[in-house]
Amino acid sequence: MIDTPPPSGPALRKSLGLLDGVAIAASSTAATTSIGIGLGVTAGVVGLHLPAIMLLAFLPILGIAGAYSRLNKVEPNAGNGYVWVGRSLTPWLGFLVGWVNIVATIAFLAYTTAVTGSAMIQLAGEAGLHRLAGLALDPGSTAQTTAVGIVVLVAVTVTAVTGVRTAARLQTGLLIFEYVVLLGFCGYGIVTGPHSFSLSWFDPFAIPSASALAQGLLLSVFCYWGFEAAFTVNEEVRDPRDASRAGLITLVTMLGLFLLGSIAFQRVLSEGELAGHGAQGLAYFGDRLASQPLAALPLVALMFSAVASLQAGVIPTARGMFAMSRDRTLGPVWSKVSSRYGTPALGTLLIGALATAVAALALVIPRLADMIMATVNAVGIVVALSYALTALAAAVRFRSLLRENWRQGIRAVVLPALSAVALLGLGGYLAWSFYTSTDHLEVSADNGWFLLLTPAVMIASGFVAAAWAKWVRKSPYFQSGRGTDADAPQLLVTSS
Prior knowledge:
Layout: H1 18-29, H2 31-46, H3 50-74, H4 81-88, H5 91-126, E1 131-132, E2 135-136, H6 142-161, H7 164-192, H8 210-224, H9 229-232, H10 241-268, H11 271-276, H12 281-289, H13 297-326, H14 345-361, H15 368-397, H16 401-404, H17 406-436, H18 448-471, H19 477-480
Antiparallel strand pairs: 1-2
Helix pairs in contact: 1-7, 1-10, 1-13, 2-8, 2-10, 2-13, 3-8, 3-10, 3-15, 3-17, 4-5, 4-15, 5-6, 5-13, 5-14, 5-15, 5-18, 6-13, 6-14, 7-10, 7-13, 8-15, 8-17, 12-13, 13-14, 15-17, 15-18, 17-18
């Protein structure tokens, strides 16, 4: 059927092609950062089974990607999950998806700010600079890494204001360098590593416990998180189908890189070395394979990846808030489009300011490794929730295909539904394990109540913000869950 088009809103400038979308999604996923830091964190949970957990996590994510792609085909919108879930399930859950994506990305930006600062301080150490103005430089200090990273965050936020086309060009250059270094070092590590290759690395049943499996899967989901950034700029691509193609290309590329990296790390490093070096894992890996100055290349790649992911994190968040603002679920400041750049410039700057504030708040956790673990666990749970709700929205919206064409029905309904159930089950099990792991609250990355409190606050604040949008702002979104479309096209939508 042909639906009556939603009201028209402020328009973003259409300037992106397929490669631009891939660059934004790949930078947001940040394979180099995930490999350099995420593999060590995950190995601390699942041991020498990184390839198994990366493959296992890819299966539900592939179902989620299919849901995004099909929904984007019938209703491209910068709000993506926020609009799709609100229309197919309920506006309350749709708003929650938009909200948790915002707060999770801001938390991610705060964490990546510290990672960027850590990489820069490590590089300074490799260059022989160990003290500055009488202060001993420590790449594991959250205070020092955050201070350096905030400077970079400010710079990339200003760059993002000038337009996604400019940002995509910068990110393409950074990605080429990163991937050349990754492929070179990981390939060399696989060939020359001292530890024997073992098929047990691919055996998920050898993971120590069910809770380790659940936590490892959510950590791996976090590593894949970001491919959907291609869908947040779907109103700025010349062909909306390019957003779907970019997301899927990015996801498959990430799987290949994560498998390559996990095998290479386990060929070169022992389990203790993998789990023990955390934020310095990629630098340690480079030192084991080469001498200086070549050994510094993985660290430079990590720094480039962190810088690119900072910028890529700011861009989709500003677009999501732009879409929510034009529906009056958020304030009007977020939907102001710059007449010069054709971007939500003011909203982009505000996102950078919010991320800077959260990065400063993260100083209550004094060690970078602890901050990373706390952030990744919290974001992993809310991202799993967001993905699951979006997949359920696709299953509900296209359920009629089960009667009309069972092959398409399996792809459009069954696979997204199974992916949603898997992610909801994982998130629920991990939340329960955090709750039962301790009997008191402590601001520490190994305190279960603290790890559970952070995502709980993210989710609870979403319902509070939704209530404000419905009854104070009186947003029309809560009447139907339909979002404003910038161009108000006549969309061919499968009737549900």
